[in-house]
Input
Amino acid sequence: MTPLVTQSLSELPAIDEHHVDRRRYPHGVAFMDGQYLSMSEAKISVLDWGFLHSDATYDTVHVWNGKFFRLNLHLDRFWRGVERLRMKLPYDREQVTSILNNCVALSGHKSAYVEMICTRGSSPTFSRDPREAENRFIAFAVPFGSVANKEQLKRGLHVAISETVRIPPKSVDPAIKNYHWLDLVKGLYDAYDKGGETALILDINGHIAEGPGFNVFLVKDGDLKTPAFGVLPGITRQSVLDLCAEIGLSVVTDHITRAEIKGADEAFITSTAGGIMPVTRIDDAAIGKGQVGSVTRRLTDLYWQKHEDPAWSTPVVYA
Ligand code: PLP
Output
């Protein structure tokens, strides 16, 4: 793992927390336009294409116990997205790594949710030509958050399948992590209407795709499966694939039908926001015995153990 390169924190300007409204902003530190700011001060222009057109890509890595988890994989995915959207970052990989480190260190968080964003920005002449826009890099570190709360992690999430179809990959490539969330948010409302706590939405072929901020896996007769098409290749999903290879569990990436997931022995969702999270009910069907299954538990334990493994983690430099 490459060590974090960072400026001495004492050389960085102090964050003015004076007028932070804690009711509206989580405690954290952002970086934009060359400055470190409190979360309440980190604001973008309404003319930024990132805001006007969702013309942006981003990535989210978490810090757990003072260490970034799989930072290189997140940076690789972010860089791929930026290149494929034909944007240019004003900082190189080493500088971005330092900025992310500094946001976490200045915030003081030992467990954090750390986002890096590149927006198309805006053009000094207000041109409609995206090639004339000056791309903008933003980063921030706020407290770690999870898709599932404590109770849901213990008893398993109750998920509803929405009829909403995920925007097709030929329109917006889900491998480029993006803020085109109207389908996912519609899915959430559909799920709430059906009594679910979160949603799974479909791909254009009617198979299970993913949910708002997570991938999904099923376990049947000891074998695992996760959708291959129309989904973000999540880093947590990748971690599950890597763990399965390490411990000899069989896992395939292939399409999953609704009937298949409802008839699974176990199901779980995966996200940087929460890790591996059990699902014990889908629509009106209990999954397996309706309790968190043994494969899910085993993978969850291994996943959190890996946060201490130097091959999978990078310590934050706090001083
Ligand atoms: N799918 C979507 C649409 C997401 O937005 C996310 C994360 O935000 C994921 C899957 C999970 O990806 P990761 O494990 O890299 O957090």
